[in-house]
């Protein structure tokens, strides 16, 4: 592979102008191959992929497919993410701007505002067909990252009444790739229109569970096995593109959003530090016709360079707000060198220590050879001599430290110029549950990163890393059977640092989830003593009061949340639910109507329709349920509610259609399956009834009523043994009503087992009171 550096190119080509010109060989070769054509654009982002785990970057892990892509294109060996978190990194990839400009600083609580123009918008407006396929809920379109895509595959909505879990908020790579290929095959056959396809794969992310044979090939190194497995997925995807003759005339960009700590520098995952284990990312550019194939460059580049590169190569003008530059520029001769300190630098940050703990944030500046990290105890690393960043040279190379420190502060001051105000994400209960399933138990921070003052003394995150590790360990344990262990870790952490607001809030969440609202209220109160405007803790305290039956206090808390947030869907729905519980349907409807304004989340219109149904206003309910469907076609619950309305009105065909729509969107919507089963019985289709009842209890194994109705249906079909088995299974679930015993008595009578039938009837009478 040919390696290009600025110095080599300048000496070889005899050009010292730092501004690329159309006469340079790089531009001549690219322009000749493109020749005015508008290529397809394929962007592949791989979650949590360390650059040093690709064999093309010197790893022992076998990644032949990504290596081959690099050999057919350009390899950037010194590429940096802007922040080691999925959502903000992708916000930079899609906008060509750094986090201080686009405003997304971490995964939770942020929204990519409308003022941020995305690559999909630019290409879509210019005539490209656009489609995005993402594998994790953190990239759901509700956060703004899907803006500009004509098709966006992000169906992470939980089925109604389903439990949130990791499987519901991420999807395996083959499923995402399959959806992308189906779109390619089914897209409108307009041969004049190129396409922009974004494929996001989540597989290397924790938990590391590589399938065979990759698990066995990398014993004791499951992350490496995940990387090798993901490379095989890339190989399959590229082969599928080849079969469709879509490689040679496409611009392909492959990168990772960030890396993974894997214990380096004491960080197991990512997001806290800005060392290269999480900030250095692979970046490969394959041009149509293999232009510049076999080229690599060590010039510093960043995710913010991807948008200007694509626009450059497809012939669209770059907006003035872009903060990156075309990657082709890094292949051109440069007039500056690292020695005089004026070479290009790129920026990365982690504001997580500030946003969640009140400690100093970490900001990094990367040059061709060095990386400087601003912190109370600053760090300087020679990346060529010390790629693992084991030796801090800040004191030994003071001139470089001072120069890069000043450059970082100067750059940081300019990155926010022209940026719009940061927008907070409005998260309903479903979204919160899904984020908790991904491990974000602490919830969003309420600190405004743009108000950070570097002159204020704060603890160095390096000195507090052990506390962060405890917090992350507790967070990973909190959602399952190890919640008690998580609580003890948090208490241990608070004994060392009682001012960790997130620890108090997480403890409250653990206790509330365990059904201990009194203890939870105490923890939320402790958190609010540190910050009385901390919205997750205000919400948690309100939820504690609600569990304790203190509905007046709960309402005050939820209304306080609305005062703080302006709009909070979860709080509005909670207020409405409390009013419904009290029988105040008018007050519930008023609360929802005030929030359900044009553009509001669809769940608000759905809940408003439900309340209006209860209030006996089906026409208004129908209108709002239709608005909910139009606002978010992926939601299942509005279709379920419309089915109930239709059935009540005697429109059985309409009800059947809506139940089926609900099940299509939420295949485990057990109530829709159950209701549709009863409807099919009314329509005389007994086999379909039984099939749906079986599906309902498969979707919710603890659904006792479903067992009893299936038992009754099997009994009527003559399958008495099957009827008895499923009915007894339902009774073992502990149903409190007499229905199960009545069904069982009928089954036993039909078998001639009258004594047992009488015993079942006696049990039914006892439950009837």
Write the layout of secondary structure elements.
Elements: E1 2-4, H1 6-13, H2 25-34, E2 40-46, H3 64-71, E3 74-76, E4 79-80, H4 86-95, H5 99-102, E5 110-111, H6 119-125, E6 129-133, E7 151-153, H7 166-169, H8 173-186, E8 195-201, H9 214-217, H10 222-243, E9 250-256, H11 276-279, E10 283-286, E11 295-297, E12 301-302, H12 306-314, E13 346-350, H13 352-357, E14 362-366, E15 370-374, E16 379-382, H14 398-415, E17 423-424, H15 429-437, H16 465-478, H17 483-496, H18 501-513, H19 517-530, H20 535-547, H21 551-565, H22 569-581, H23 585-595, H24 602-614, H25 618-631, H26 637-648, H27 652-665, H28 670-682, H29 686-699, H30 704-717, H31 720-732, H32 739-750, H33 754-768
Parallel strand pairs: 1-11, 2-8, 2-9, 3-11, 4-12, 6-7, 6-8
Antiparallel strand pairs: 3-10, 5-17, 9-10, 13-14, 14-15, 15-16
Describe the structure.
This protein is of the alpha/beta class and about 775 residues long. Among the domains are: about 35-330, Alkaline Phosphatase, subunit A (3-Layer(aba) Sandwich), CATH 3.40.720.10; about 700-769, Serine Threonine Protein Phosphatase 5, Tetratricopeptide repeat (Alpha Horseshoe). A hairpin with a 4-residue loop joins β15 and β16. The relative contact order is 0.08. Residues about 1-20, about 160-170 and about 335-340 have low confidence and may be disordered.
């Amino acid at each position: 592979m040919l390696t290009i550096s600025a110095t080599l190119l300048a000496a070889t080509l005899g050009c010292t102008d730092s501004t690329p010109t159309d006469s340079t060989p790089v531009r001549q070769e690219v322009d000749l191959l493109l020749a005015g054509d508008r290529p397809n654009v394929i962007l592949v982002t791989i979650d949590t992929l360390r650059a040093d785990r690709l064999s093309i970057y010197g790893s022992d892990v076998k990644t032949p497919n990504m290596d081959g892509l690099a050999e057919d294109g350009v390899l950037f060996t010194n590429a940096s993410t802007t922040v080691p978190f999925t959502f903000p990194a992708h916000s930079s990839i899609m906008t060509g701007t750094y986090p201080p400009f686009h405003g997304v600083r971490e995964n939770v609580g942020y929204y990519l505002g409308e003022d941020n123009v995305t690559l999909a918008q630019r290409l879509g407006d210019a005539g490209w067909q656009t489609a995005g396929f993402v594998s994790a809920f953190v990239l759901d379109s509700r956060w703004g990252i899907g803006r500009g895509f004509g098709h966006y595959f992000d169906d992470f909505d939980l089925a109604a009444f389903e439990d949130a879990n990791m499987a519901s908020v991420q999807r395996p790579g083959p499923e995402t790739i399959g959806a992308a290929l189906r779109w390619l095959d089914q897209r409108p056959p307009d041969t004049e229109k190129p396409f922009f396809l974004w494929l996001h794969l989540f597989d290397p992310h924790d938990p590391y569970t590589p399938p065979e044979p990759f698990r066995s090939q990398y014993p004791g190194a499951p992350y490496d096995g995940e990387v090798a497995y993901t490379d095989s997925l890339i190989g399959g995807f590229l082969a599928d593109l080849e079969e469709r003759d879509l490689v040679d005339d496409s611009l392909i960009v492959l990168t990772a959003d960030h890396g993974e700590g894997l214990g380096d520098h004491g960080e197991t995952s990512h997001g806290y530090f800005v060392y290269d284990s999480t900030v250095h990312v692979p970046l490969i550019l394959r041009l149509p016709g293999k232009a510049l194939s076999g080229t690599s460059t060590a010039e510093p580049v960043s995710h913010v360079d991807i948008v200007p590169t694509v626009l450059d190569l497809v012939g669209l003008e770059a907006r003035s707000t872009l903060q990156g530059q075309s990657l082709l520029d890094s292949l051109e001769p440069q007039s500056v060198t690292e020695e005089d300190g004026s070479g290009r630098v790129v920026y990365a940050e982690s504001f997580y220590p500030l946003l969640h703990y009140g400690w100093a944030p970490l900001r990094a500046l990367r040059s061709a050879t060095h990386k400087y990290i601003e912190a109370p105890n600053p760090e300087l690393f020679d990346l060529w001599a010390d790629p693992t960043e084991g030796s801090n040279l800040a004191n030994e190379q003071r001139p470089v430290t001072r120069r890069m420190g000043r450059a970082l502060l100067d750059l940081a001051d300019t990155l926010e110029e022209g940026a719009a105000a940061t927008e907070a994400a409005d998260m309903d209960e479903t979204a919160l549950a899904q984020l908790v399933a991904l491990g974000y138990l602490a919830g969003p921070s309420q600190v405004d990163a743009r108000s950070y003052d570097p002159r204020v003394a704060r603890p160095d995150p390096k000195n507090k890393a052990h506390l962060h590790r405890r917090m992350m360990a507790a967070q990973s344990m909190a959602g399952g059977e190890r919640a008690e262990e998580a609580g003890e870790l948090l208490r241990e952490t608070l004994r060392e640092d009682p001012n960790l607001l997130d620890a108090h809030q997480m403890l409250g969440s653990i206790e509330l989830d365990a059904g201990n609202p009194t203890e939870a209220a105490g923890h939320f109160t402790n958190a609010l003593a540190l910050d009385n405007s901390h919205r997750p803790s205000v919400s948690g305290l309100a939820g504690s009061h609600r569990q304790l039956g203190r509905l007046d206090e709960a309402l005050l808390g939820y209304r306080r949340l609305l005062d703080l947030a302006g709009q909070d869907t979860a709080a509005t729905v909670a207020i409405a639910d409390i009013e419904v519980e009290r029988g105040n349907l008018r007050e519930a409807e008023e609360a929802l109507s005030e929030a359900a304004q044009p553009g509001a989340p669809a769940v608000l219109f759905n809940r408003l329709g439900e309340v209006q149904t209860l209030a006996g206003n089906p026409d208004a309910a129908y209108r709002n349920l239709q608005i909910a469907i139009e606002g978010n076609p992926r939601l299942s619950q509005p279709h379920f509610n419309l089915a109930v309305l239709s059935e009540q009105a005697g429109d059985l065909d309409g009800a059947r259609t809506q139940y089926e729509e609900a099940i299509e969107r939420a295949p485990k919507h057990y109530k829709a399956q159950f209701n549709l089963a009863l409807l099919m019985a009314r329509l005389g289709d007994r086999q379909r009834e039984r099939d749906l009842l079986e599906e309902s209890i498969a979707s919710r194994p603890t659904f006792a009523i479903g067992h009893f109705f299936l038992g009754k249906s099997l009994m009527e079909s003559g399958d008495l043994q099957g009827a008895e088995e499923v009915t007894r299974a339902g009774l073992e679930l502990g149903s409190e009503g007499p229905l199960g015993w009545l069904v069982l008595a009928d089954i036993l009578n039909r078998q001639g087992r009258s004594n047992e039938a009488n015993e079942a009837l006696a049990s039914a009478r006892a439950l009837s009171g």
